[in-house]
Design goal:
With 177 residues, the protein is an alpha+beta fold. The chain has one domain (2-174). 34% of the residues lie in helices and 21% in strands. It is built from 5 helices and 6 strands, in the order H-E-H-E-E-H-E-E-H-E-H. Strands 4-5-1-3-2-6 form a 6-stranded mixed sheet. A hairpin with a 5-residue loop joins strand 2 (71-77) and strand 3 (83-90).
Length: 177
């Protein structure tokens, strides 16, 4: 049990370093529920990369890929055994309202993403209004670091090493773009 707790602390430290966290963090927590079941982790990763790259293009401009926002994404099965993605972005100098505008622009500019989203600034309430024809992105501001416990809840801590089977940093997620 002590080894698992030590490994969990190690993974959380890795997440904080990957997000380039400073004293003035500006973190956003995003969850993507896909409009169609993904056949495996890699197809879910590709779909998430497509959605996030269009979002970052609208937020950071067309050269976003040179310095994408630091992020960590984990892909997991839901209760219904359907893949979905949890991501934490360090928005750096960007604000939640700017992210809201970027997401709104992405929805209109890239209709082939079939994207809809909800911004939740205060409480994270499970929303059950997902449409089967849209990829649903739920975004909320991170008010404390408890989100790391949520991100690691499906991560296999028994390995005692970070294996990256379903955990990607922004560098790993966007390296092929």
């Amino acid at each position: 049990m002590q080894l698992i707790q030590n490994h969990e602390a190690e993974v959380i430290t890795f997440l904080q370093q990957s997000l380039k966290m400073q004293s003035c963090d500006n973190l956003a927590f995003c969850t993507i529920h896909f409009n169609k079941p993904q056949k495996d982790v890699y197809s879910a990763k590709d779909e998430a990369r497509s959605i996030y790259s269009r979002m970052l293009n609208q937020l950071q401009g067309k050269r976003w890929y040179k310095h994408p926002l630091p992020s960590v994404s984990i892909i997991e099965h839901g209760k219904t055994n359907i893949f979905h993605v949890h991501s934490v972005f360090n928005l750096c100098e960007y604000s939640m309202p700017k992210l809201d505008i970027a997401l709104s622009n992405a929805c209109h500019k890239y209709p082939y993403l079939y994207l809809t989203y909800d911004m939740q600034y205060t409480n994270y309430l499970n929303s059950h209004n997902f449409s089967p024809v849209m990829n649903h992105l739920l975004v909320r501001k991170v008010f404390n670091e408890d989100v790391f416990n949520y991100v690691t809840k499906e991560y296999n801590l028994n390995n005692h090493k970070i294996d990256f089977l379903n955990l990607w940093t922004s560098d790993m997620l966007f390296k092929t773009l």
